[in-house]
Amino acid sequence: MASNAPQLPAKFVDNWLGNVHAVRERKLYFSEEPLDPKDPNSPTKFYLTVDGEKPLQFDPNASAPNIVVHQGEVEDWVIENRSAELHAFHIHQVHFLLTEWNGIPVDEPYLRDTINVGYWDGNKAEYPRVKLRMDFRDPRIVGTFMYHCHLLEHEDGGMMGTIRVEARSKIE
Prior knowledge:
There is one protein chain. The protein is globular, with a radius of gyration of 18 Å. It has a single domain, classed as Immunoglobulin-like. It is mainly β and 172 residues long. The protein is built from two helices and eleven strands. A hairpin with a 2-residue loop joins strand 6 and strand 7.
């Protein structure tokens, strides 16, 4: 029976996001803190930070994007949750493939634009995390767009950033 099953052409198999090599890996993380550390009931400041950068709430007036990528590339992003509540990573304009869940390889046959990242219980040595294969190959995605926590209170509280996809150089 399997010998009669239709086979995809090699160009589709070779271009499947799971079969494409990532040019780089980035790490981003969710974190939060109370506005007044002495008052646990004070409003919360929410962050979605590129590892190595200082956690800052989103600034809609910032002139530079948080991340710059090039159209045509594929990247792996590790998204960690360093807070005690669930966050949902969402990105506009592109789709991604879940490749790992808390360090365990995953073989899913579909693409996403949103994924939940479990909360940190404060006891484990490692933070909850997902590894995502990000697809910037579509020529129509050149420009600047958002990524953020998909929970409205968190997004509005500053848990977001911008990404700029730059056009591929014509000299390449």
